[in-house]
Specification:
With 818 residues, the protein is mostly helical. Helix content is 49%, strand content 4%. This is Autophagy-related protein 9.
Length: 818
């Protein structure tokens, strides 16, 4: 039995004394009225929101109510999904049993006086119904009716729940439905936390935190993300000719969720409690056999219903995409984030709208990167096919314009349609002639957007191996459709041959990485974002007090810095949340180091001299005083003023409309952000000069709101941190690396009489041509760059961008500051 804290925090008051005149039972035992407590519900409560039993379901419905637009939108969506299901089934039967195709296609002489009408092509009602008489159709009809009744009951149940949640929004949260689009989830969550204090929705804790709500909404998703991260569940498979292939279909995810979380005899007894037997190592053998048996029966059931599910998938995708083939055939050449990427790239405790927003921001950078990989053979073939297909299509179009009877010729319309589709497909294979191929730069853009990238991709962005590996995350839509069509056939074999042998690993994972939290229940320990237990020293700064002691074993560490990334992301989207001491130390250390690096790079200039990084740029190039790697130079592309000076009073701005998908609070304190703190430190150091008083005033007022563009820039702070953490990890294994960007700046950017070049040289342990007569020793095979003498003032000096050049092997001194 689960052990809960007996010191329950709730609202209790002494029971008032009885009236002396009131009759009492003589046999009643005396009661010490001062020791008797009774829970008092608020008198102004208008709904039953006290001591909610299943808070996981409740908070999930509260979240979905906000994200899906309220009661009417959710009800209409559920009803239309049921109608869509009925339509596909009924329309498929109608087309197969109620249409006379011999009459429709003129296979028989029916009527020569006029064109065939719909009434003539449709069979009578009695003939349509006769098709249901076969035993096969009777079985299908029974299955269909059972599914319809189940879905109908689910819709009715959900609608009743929607009314309950609507009442909670209106009466408890004081949020009318019309205001949902004008409120972020952070605002709704803040009100939920306040309502908890009044209504005591959770009886085990008087006050809830933001993390408690996230844990309940994302309990099972956190488990799946963690199991994918440590490779407990096999998601990649070795296939002949294809090599490693990641396959995660919707049907496979559904089966895994049913087996592990909510299905019959699942390890979880309910939404919040793992069965006690799974918490003991003595039951491992027994539980492994039970889980293997459960996976076997699920796989067998999928195999039995495979033909029916395959037929249904075919109908669904045909009705959904058939029209697009004619209207927009290029849709199949577009890409989408794969189901595997939605597990690999997701942070712990990241809600759907936060995750989707991050993926949407990364869509264009990823598309730009993958579009630089083209096949010359495919381009040549596509251009010639377009020429021939275009020629024939042009002739047919001209003949159609001259005489529309050409369309009545057999197969002419079909040929025009096929040629149009073929030309669209070929056009998608031909790259834009103005495309600039910069794979490393584009991959850095991708890393900033998606936050996760394997270590061996750095420096290999131009290789086909990296391209193929990235295609598993960002796949063609046609590949997704094929995977889903074949899912009924593939899923049973993955369950039986791949997942079933991992049953023992799954049992171990549930036992080792499940912790009980008061007021929340059993959660995945990775979701606590504990850098001491699940952190990785490669993604953390320094040692000593800043590093976990003792270091967690390899089996306890999350891969790819997911613990550190998740902690940073959650704290930024929920700035009011207070992490534990280890997490707080990690966040503050990382932010301080980034701030120092940015400040140092901006202090490499003195009055009257050409600056290395213009102080007018609120987000300068991130040039740490350590040898930097392939990620750092990306920061130089993020330019623009953080705080724009304005005249007159600063208006109090509030975003309105379509803000429900925004991450974090709608208004964030300027000085609480990394960029705001950097700006404040610059102001205090007098780096902005006399003309920046308004900027200084802005950065020192934490409650002042900023314009929407500035808010968007500040929201990208997580991207900066992610890129910096990748750079930090890269430094651990490449300590002697100096990027070509910094080498070029050291050599080219010191005008006569300036000390900026020598400052940078000393910071990196090198000496520029302006400070001494010799250059730093280059690696073998590299020529020494001669000293360049330029005419003109420092303002006319140009900076050479060598970010795409392969870096020379430079030597730096051991005295470079850390």
């Amino acid at each position: 039995m689960a052990q809960y804290d007996t010191n329950i925090e709730t609202v209790y008051q002494p029971l008032g004394s009885y009236d002396e005149d009131e009759e009492t039972d003589e046999n009643e035992l005396p009661v010490n009225e001062q020791d008797l407590l009774i829970h008092v519900c608020p008198e102004n409560s208008k709904g039953n929101w006290n001591h909610i039993e299943d808070l996981d379901d409740f908070f999930t419905r509260v979240y979905n109510y906000h994200q899906r637009g309220g009661y009417i939108c959710m009800t209409m969506e559920d009803v239309f999904q049921l109608v869509q299901f009925l339509f596909i089934a009924v329309f498929a039967y109608f087309m197969s049993h109620c249409v006379s195709y011999t009459v429709l296609f003129h296979d028989i002489e029916y009527n020569k006086s006029h064109k065939v009408t719909l009434d003539e092509a449709i069979l009578p009602m009695d003939q349509c119904i006769d098709g249901l008489g076969s035993s096969f159709m009777v079985i299908l009809t029974i299955i269909f009716l059972i599914v319809v009744l189940i879905r109908l009951a689910k819709v009715i149940f959900n609608i009743s729940k929607y009314l309950y949640i609507r009442s909670f929004y209106v009466n408890a949260l004081k949020i009318p439905t019309g205001e949902l689009a004008n409120m972020t989830w952070h605002e709704v969550q803040t009100r939920v936390l306040e309502v908890q204090k009044e209504h005591q929705m959770c009886v085990h804790k008087r006050e809830l935190t933001q993390l408690d709500i996230y844990h309940r909404i994302l309990r099972f998703k956190n488990y799946m993300v963690a199991m994918a991260n440590v490779n407990t569940i096999p998601l990649k498979h070795d296939l002949p000719l294809l090599g490693k292939y990641a396959y995660v279909s919707i049907a496979l995810k559904f089966n895994l969720d049913a087996i592990l979380f909510w299905g019959p005899w699942a390890p979880f007894e309910n939404n919040w409690h793992l069965r006690n037997e799974y918490k003991s190592a003595r039951n491992k053998a027994k539980l492994t056999r039970q889980l293997e048996s459960r996976i076997f029966w699920f796989g067998l059931a999928n195999l039995v219903f495979c033909p029916l599910i395959f037929f249904w998938n075919g109908l669904y995708f045909f009705f959904r995409y058939a029209e697009l083939i004619k209207r927009q055939p290029s849709i199949f050449g577009s890409r989408r984030w794969s189901n595997y990427s939605r597990l690999y790239l997701r942070h712990f405790n990241e809600l759907d709208h936060e995750f989707n927003a991050r993926l949407n921001k990364g869509y264009q950078p990823v598309s730009d990167y993958l579009n630089i990989f083209t096949s010359n053979i495919a381009v040549v073939i596509a251009r010639n096919v377009m020429f021939f297909a275009g020629s024939v299509l042009a002739v047919l179009v001209i003949l159609t314009v001259v005489d529309e009877d050409v369309l009545n010729v057999e197969h002419v319309l079909t040929i025009i349609t096929v040629l149009g589709v073929l030309m669209t497909v070929c056009k998608g294979l031909i790259p834009d002639e103005h495309t600039v191929h910069s794979p490393e730069l584009l991959l850095r853009n991708v890393a900033m957007a998606i936050h996760y990238m394997p270590e061996n991709w750095a420096g290999n962005a131009h290789t086909i191996n990296v391209r193929n590996a990235f295609s598993t995350l960002f796949q063609f839509k046609i590949v997704y459709i094929v995977e889903e069509l074949l899912s009924p056939i593939i899923t049973p074999f993955i369950l039986l041959l791949c997942v079933r042998p991992r049953a023992a690993n799954i049992v171990d994972f549930l036992r080792q990485f499940t912790v009980e939290v008061v007021g929340v229940g059993d959660i995945c320990s990775f979701a606590q974002m504990d850098v001491r237990r699940h952190g990785n020293a490669k993604w953390q700064l320094g040692g000593g007090e800043n590093a976990p002691t003792p270091a967690p074993p390899k089996s306890q560490q999350a891969e790819n810095g997911k613990t550190e990334m998740s902690l940073m992301h959650f704290q930024m989207t929920n700035p009011e949340w207070k992490p534990d001491s280890d997490g707080n130390t990690f966040i503050n250390t990382l932010r301080s180091q980034i701030q120092r690096d940015i400040s140092r790079s901006m202090m490499m200039t003195t009055d009257g001299q050409h600056s290395l990084v213009s102080p007018s740029l609120a987000l300068p190039s991130l040039v740490p005083p350590l040898p930097v790697g392939p990620y750092t130079s990306m920061m130089s592309s993020l330019q623009g003023p953080l705080f724009t000076p304005t005249s007159g009073p600063i208006p109090s701005l509030r975003l309105r409309g379509a803000v429900s998908q925004l991450e974090g609070p709608p208004v964030r304190a300027v000085s609480s952000s990394l960029l705001g703190s950097v700006q404040s430190s610059m102001d205090s150091g007098g780096m902005l000069g006399d003309g920046a008083s308004m900027q200084t005033s802005l950065s020192r007022h934490a409650v002042r709101q900023v314009d929407e563009c500035t808010r968007e820039l500040m929201s990208n702070e997580m991207n900066i941190n992610a890129l910096y953490m990748h750079e930090l990890r890269w430094r651990r294994g490449n300590s002697a690396y100096l990027s070509t960007d910094d080498y070029a700046r050291a050599v080219w950017q010191s005008p006569e009489g300036s000390t900026a070049g020598s400052t940078l040289g000393s910071a990196y342990g090198i000496t520029t041509a302006h400070s001494t007569s010799t250059l730093p020793a280059l690696g073998q095979g590299h020529e020494v760059m001669p000293e360049i003498q330029e005419e003109g003032s420092a303002d006319d000096e140009r900076e050479v961008d060598t970010s795409m050049m392969s870096p020379p092997s430079l030597h730096h001194t051991d005295s470079a500051p850390l």
